[in-house]
Design brief:
Blueprint lengths: L1 E4 L16 E6 L9 H12 L11 E9 L2 E9 L5 E9 L5 H15 L20 E3 L25 E12 L6 E11 L4 E16 L4 E15 L10 E18 L8 E19 L2 E14 L2 E6 L4 E7 L3 E12 L9
Parallel strand pairs: 1-6, 2-3
Antiparallel strand pairs: 1-5, 3-4, 4-5, 7-8, 7-16, 8-9, 9-10, 10-11, 11-12, 12-13, 13-16, 14-15
Helix pairs in contact: 1-2
Length: 343
């Protein structure tokens, strides 16, 4: 079922047929499989009974269709001689395909071009668009500025950037003596359907290890920046998304001796590169479940040696390995793309 808002009629008279229009059609994000401009023009022409489209026409109508989490949204805009808006109309549809909403759009365009279309029976010439029933909402009139209309093309744009924030629980291997656990805060900024950037901060809880000489406490905090590619080209309407990432991580490990001081403690740097896989599943509304799995290849790592005896002998308390890994699971909140379709 489609819902519509706001309609304006284009004045009709003679000459170069002032009721002709110059038409632009845009299929926005998620609507790439919708009928193209040729199909829409043909559907409108069938209803008007002639071809009302001309590059020399004095009326401009620009239409756009996009997909969101509820279905499809279509909108068209009419502008006049001085680039003033004469009216707009919007349709929404929960149908699984966009043919019904494009059918409704074609009928509305035909009525805008020639209001008598509303009094005519259905066209005898069939189009490739499936028929759809339309339930219009109350119409708000837009005052007509001038009976003489000139064309000005309307650019349509829509930001695809979207932000997601999540809080997760991490498990890391290869940075502390045993598997480390702790919380993480992640931010995901999607620039397009294919590219995103991730920023993460995590803290691994203190671990203790013992030798015959002393007890030691070690903990770690780190942050990472990732560039991610979504091979499926997920949109804000997609319930699930998957991305492969390349991450640069940097942090600090803190170590101290709890009894006899036998190691050089303090805070030391840690730097690593590595790949990661990230998956997100929209649970309900903006709430998403997120999982991440990654590997780290240390560029800067640390070894803690215990020194004792006379002469001095050394024994390794802990040495960070070259290769490590981590996994995380958490929940987050995802936004719709910044901005909206606009003329």
């Amino acid at each position: 079922m489609c819902a519509a808002t706001l309609l304006v009629a284009v004045p009709a008279s003679g000459q170069e047929r002032e009721d002709n229009v110059r038409f632009a059609w845009v299929r926005d994000e998620g609507a790439e499989t919708c009928p193209d401009a040729t199909v829409v023009r043909r559907a409108v022409s069938d209803r008007v009974g002639r071809d009302p489209f001309s590059e020399r026409a004095r009326t401009s109508i620009d239409a756009i269709v996009r997909r969101n989490s509820q279905g499809f949204v279509a909108r068209f805009f009419v502008r006049g001689a001085s680039d003033e808006p004469l009216g707009t109309r919007e349709f929404t549809s929960a149908a699984p395909t966009c043919e019904p909403i494009v059918e409704a759009l074609a009928l509305a365009l035909a009525i805008v071009i020639d209001p008598t279309v509303a009094l005519r029976p259905e066209p005898l010439v069939s189009t490739s668009i499936v028929r759809a029933s339309v339930t219009p909402s109350p119409i708000a009139a837009v005052p007509r500025r001038s009976p003489s209309l000139t064309l000005t093309a309307l650019p349509t744009s829509r930001s695809q950037m979207a932000l997601a924030l999540s809080l997760s629980f991490d498990a890391a291997l290869g940075v502390l003596p045993t598997v480390g656990f702790g919380p993480a805060l992640d931010a995901h900024l999607r620039f397009s359907r294919w590219i995103a950037a991730d920023l993460s901060s995590r803290w691994l809880a203190e671990q203790r290890t013992s030798t015959a000489l002393s007890d030691y406490a070690l903990s770690m905090a780190s942050s990472s920046a990732s560039v991610c590619v979504d091979p499926l080209g997920s949109t804000s309407a997609s319930r699930a998304s998957f991305a492969a990432c390349a991450a640069l991580s940097a942090g600090a490990i803190s170590a101290s001796a709890l009894r006899q001081r036998a190691i050089e403690g303090g805070v030391r740097p840690w730097v690593a590169l590595g790949p990661a896989l990230r998956g997100q599943l929209r649970v309900v509304g903006p709430l998403v479940l997120e999982a991440r799995l990654g590997a780290t290849f240390a560029l800067a790592r640390n070894a803690y040696l215990e020194e004792s005896g006379e002469p001095v002998t050394s024994a390794t308390v802990f040495e960070q390995p070259l290769v490590g890994g981590y996994a995380s699971l958490g929940f987050g909140v995802a936004t719709e793309p910044f901005g909206a379709s606009r003329p």
